[in-house]
Amino acid sequence: MTWPMRMAAFGGRVVLGLVFLLPGVMAARDWRDRRIGTFEFDAPLSEVFVPLLIGAEILAGAALVLGYRSRFAALVLILLLIFETSQQFGMTGGHGRLLVESSDLLLARLGLMGGLLFVFGSGGGPLRLSRR
Predict the structure, then answer these.
(1) 6-20 per-position pLDDT tens digit
(2) For residues 87 and 95, what is the distance between their CA atoms, to the nearest angstrom?
(3) Is residue 34 within a helix (H) or strand (E), and if so which, with residue range?
(4) 78: domain range?
(5) What is the DSSP string of 62-76?
């Protein structure tokens, strides 16, 4: 792999990790507001699930930035995106509706899933903490 390709893989992994790490840190400050946004209806155990989701977002995002167990971190974030997208758009029986305005959000999440699938398939790339 050439030097520009190595730096592009490194930069892409770091930016993708920051996309999850920074919002996770911001959501940890006011996680009760996140609970209302994630679960449109008063879901049972949402007081437990939302802090777990935020913690997973922070830890997996930091793991991607550092290049530590990148494939596992990417898998966790893919599952997190699938869960949050299904809650947002009512695919699990919720009250959400796919509106024209929300289609941009859906496409953005699909793009993030594509980047995470690339990391999952190719690994952490150069300049990482772990060898996996």
Answers:
(1) 888 899 999 999 999
(2) 9
(3) helix 31-38
(4) 3-122
(5) HHHHHTSSHHHHHHH
